[in-house]
Amino acid sequence: MSKENKTALVTGGSKGIGYGVAKTLLKMGYKVAVTSRSLSAAEKAAEKLSDHGEIIGLEADVRNFESQKKAVQQLLDKWGQLDVLVANAGIGNFGSVEDLTVDEWKDTIDTNLTGVFFSVKACVDALKKSEGYIITISSLAGTNFFAGGAAYNASKFGVTGFSQAIMLDLRDKGVKVSTIMPGSVATYFNDNEPSEEDAWKIQIEDIGELVGDLLKMNPRTLPSKIEVRPSRPSKK
């Protein structure tokens, strides 16, 4: 089947890494749905990307399983199949365990870890039918712990482990699973505003290119876990 008939769902696709991935997929000929907790943000991103291909913006909260199922069904109702899930949505709450609030812990785990589970669970039946691909966006914080990272480290260690386990669950079903673990990326993450000072960081289009490379990989080969870093980190 040609890529012009293939579809992808990108969670957290209204900005940052998700936006960069969606742009790459559109250029490759995929039909793309981007989701956000805010429908207006998802639709605005879709409008900005529409020159590159067929795209829709959907409201979906990865913390809510029913919300995820609804978004997947909307995609299936429109295009009939799902070929790629990019589970990207994530947040960052940082601070010592002494200061980290219960709500910050819960929101981080619910979004970054349970949200990936809900996204996969909502998509897995459709992906088995298409023998599709799941790509999760973890982080180098998923193997490297640091002070102030209790919630974020826990969530991303979990995403890394979850992704590797479901890779083993699903590869005999024809579904490939990879996790990408970026270091510093120039995004809006954690209220950052990308600027020229972020030029040394990984750019969102770099992660998009990496996703594209995975999808072009010979089907016999599965890069299951990919660490990616800035080649020349800041000296600051």
Automatic annotation (TrEMBL):
Pfam families attached to this UniProt entry: adh_short
GO BP term (any one): monocarboxylic acid metabolic process
InterPro entries, per the entry: KR_dom, NAD(P)-bd_dom_sf, Sc_DH/Rdtase_CS, SDR, SDR_fam
Ranges where the Ketoreductase domain occurs: 6-186
PANTHER family, alphabetized: 3-OXOACYL-(ACYL-CARRIER-PROTEIN) REDUCTASE (PTHR42879), 3-OXOACYL-[ACYL-CARRIER-PROTEIN] REDUCTASE FABG (PTHR42879:SF2)
Protein family (similarity comment): Belongs to the short-chain dehydrogenases/reductases (SDR) family.
Protein name: Ketoreductase domain-containing protein
Lineage of source species: Bacteria, Pseudomonadati, Bacteroidota, Flavobacteriia, Flavobacteriales
